[in-house]
Design brief:
The protein is α/β, with parallel strands linked by helices and 639 residues long. It has a seven-stranded mixed beta sheet with strand order 10-7-11-12-19-18-17. Helix 17 links the parallel strand 11 and strand 12. Helix 7 runs parallel beside helix 9. It is elongated, with a radius of gyration of 26 Å. It starts with a helix and ends with a helix.
Length: 639
């Protein structure tokens, strides 16, 4: 009897595993690989069985990939995995387990990007304290005579390409958030010095490392460079450039220098992309030499950097063909299934370095001597980053060439935080917390549009640069000491812009939390009036009190059927406006066609992070899908 029971339980387990594998196989490849990651490292990041987990950069590469999937899906499982992974190391005081700043290892900085994400999303002080420890390391980190960070304290006078990825994207985001304006000069210096000292003028490729003292055995006695062009090293440098630019000030004089470096690098690596396989070699310029092989992590890194560079407008669109060819080849050659049906990444070299013990001389034979393995975390992380870029490629034409402008004039609230005495927040693109519109901004970005913020009064010139203009939650006297109210002049300016073809999206609030009477000067021109009421007054977590059903034939919301709206102003709708979502006799959402333009209106900020990111709202409410549907529709209206 016991044997029968055991057999039955084993059969049941096999059936469950088979069903789980079948469900996973229907997901995009990025999510299939992410599922494998969560099986390999469910609780911590121990790379060697039986040995304790360490604070190391590999994990940060993977988790940046998870961040991208979370933003693309709104599924909280990915954010929760990031938080759980970092919480293994960061205690409530902000101390990082196993981190030793006196090692001055720039690799240890990389995970700081996830600490900044967690701080900006949750507001928990421990994450900022932990990130600030890493920032403090950079204040004291040893440098070359011209100010370049050493790769590690034990690697005296040496800069490696790898180190730019490990340190600079974190450095830039921290500087942006802490308003350390002069820091960006130092960040540019790192890239410029690396290119100046490591770039080969003939090929345009960069050598793996540079020794200022020229004393290392691997260093060229005249130039100080290492002997070869290692694929992943250049991949790190390329990814560092596109990620740093995310937070680099648009008006900084050296921003153009970083873009120019990225362009030169892209031209160089495109020339050494293997014409047959579409991939890149372990030693980049020696693809025909005996023993060389195409390598997964470098190929993924180049695909990511080039695809993102094109999407962000840093690179010419012609370069996307290089990324497309590379990605197709990655899927064909490196993505496989293991014996248990898990999706895995093969073909990643486990490590390559310079110096150390035993000594690594940077020779061609050395680079070919390191092991090539499956599911290397650096390779997996690079693949997730590449897949996040490539899986949105079909969406990009929708918003190409279109700018989405978010108002920060009628909505202009400030708060104090741990970092600054005053910060603009509440429905802004860069607010990652519950109150922000960052995920909506990410969706516009993932559909190829550019996002911008309007801090001054609307006029024909600043509105003329935008295809979509979004106004959220106009201030009342409770929220801002000197609110900017709507008036006839502003309303006329916006109306004429809509008439000419502009797309206006309005998200107000209930009567007690927004100024509606003056704001109706604008909206009544389109046949929409926000009522002085408050509907869907949800008590505590009784989410059903905020449930709104959307019929299947809705002109905007093609995939969202059940959504959540809390404390909303209902609408009075007259011609030319039409209600497109109703609840009983109440108008919830309306659309107005006005001249060549379009107006969308709802009486709630609605699609802000708290009710889109999946962390709070039960998943039966499809607010993320609604946000995706709305972004698509708004961009489609913008001719």
């Amino acid at each position: 009897m016991k044997q029968i029971l055991v057999g039955f339980l084993l059969l049941l387990l096999l059936q469950q595993t088979s069903a789980q594998n079948a469900a996973t196989a229907k997901l995009p490849v990025s999510q299939q690989i992410a599922a494998t990651v969560m099986k390999l490292w469910p609780d911590s990041f121990s790379l060697v069985a039986g040995k304790p987990a360490k604070w190391q950069y590999d994990q940060g590469v993977i988790l940046k990939g998870f961040e991208g999937i979370w933003k693309r899906t709104g599924d909280p499982v990915y954010f929760n995995y990031i938080q759980k992974s970092m919480d293994f190391y960061v205690d409530n005081s902000g101390k990082i387990k196993g981190y030793r700043p006196d090692e001055f290892n720039i690799d240890h900085i990389n995970n700081g990007k996830l600490l900044l994400l967690l701080y900006r999303v949750t507001g928990k002080e421990k994450y900022w304290r932990a990130a600030s420890q890493l920032r403090d390391q950079l204040l004291k980190h040893p440098r070359t005579s011209e100010g370049g960070f050493w790769h590690k304290k034990i690697y005296t006078n040496q800069m490696w390409l790898d180190g730019l990825y490990m340190g600079q994207p974190f450095y830039a985001e921290y500087a942006m958030w802490a308003k350390e304006d002069t820091t960006f000069n130092d960040i540019a210096r790192q890239f410029i010095l690396m290119e100046k000292n490591a770039r080969d003028p003939k090929t345009g490729l960069l050598y793996h490392g540079w020794d200022e003292s020229k004393q290392q055995q691997w260093a060229n006695k005249a130039t100080g460079v290492s002997p070869n062009f290692w694929g992943r090293a250049m991949g790190w440098y390329a990814m560092a450039l596109v990620d740093v630019l995310d937070n680099y000030p648009a008006n900084h004089p050296q921003r153009k220098d970083l873009v120019a470096i990225l362009d030169r690098l892209t031209v160089a690596v495109s020339k050494v992309q293997d014409k047959n396989s579409g991939l890149w070699y372990q030693v980049l310029d020696k693809g025909t030499q005996k023993g060389n092989y195409v390598e997964a992590s470098a190929s993924c890194m180049f695909v990511y950097a080039i695809a993102k560079g094109v999407r962000k407008g840093y690179l010419d669109k012609k370069h996307v063909a290089v990324a497309n060819k590379g990605y197709r080849s990655i899927l064909k050659q490196f993505i496989k299934k293991d014996a248990e049906g898990n999706t895995i990444l093969s073909g990643t070299v486990s490590v390559s370095g310079l110096g150390g013990t035993p000594y690594r001389d940077g020779s061609y034979d050395y680079y070919l001597s390191e092991k090539v393995i499956d599911n290397d975390p650096k390779g997996i992380g690079a693949f997730l980053l590449a897949a996040n870029e490539m899986e949105i490629q079909t969406q990009l034409p929708t918003g190409a060439g279109k700018t989405v402008l978010l108002d920060n004039f009628f909505n202009h609230e400030f708060k104090k935080d741990l970092v600054t005495n005053e910060r603009s927040y509440h429905y802004t693109w860069d607010d990652l917390s519950n109150s922000g519109f960052s995920l909506m901004g990410d969706l516009f970005d993932m559909h190829g549009a550019k996002t911008a913020t309007l801090k001054e009064a609307p006029n024909s010139e600043n509105l003329g640069k935008a295809k979509v203009f979004i106004i959220v939650d106009p201030d009342n006297e409770k929220e801002t000491t000197a609110p900017n109210f709507m008036n006839e002049q502003y309303a006329t300016t916006i109306t004429e812009w809509v008439r000419a073809g502009g797309v206006l999206a309005i998200f107000t609030n209930d009567a007690g939390n927004a100024e509606l009477e003056k704001f109706n000067i604008l909206t009544q021109k389109f046949g929409i009036r926000f009522n002085n009421d408050a509907r869907n007054m949800v008590k505590n977590d009784q989410y059903d009190q905020g449930a709104i059903a959307i019929p299947t034939n809705n002109p905007i919301f093609k995939s969202a059927r059940k959504v959540y709206l809390k404390e909303i102003s209902t609408l009075t709708v007259t011609t030319p406006a039409k209600a497109i979502v109703k609840e009983g006799s109440d108008n919830i959402i309306a659309v107005s066609k006005y001249g060549k333009g379009t107006v969308f209106a709802v009486g709630d900020p609605w699609l802000y992070n708290e009710y889109v990111d999946g962390r709070k709202l039960p998943l039966e409410y499809q607010n993320y899908k609604a946000a995706h549907d709305l972004v698509m529709w708004l961009l489609q209206q913008a001719k």
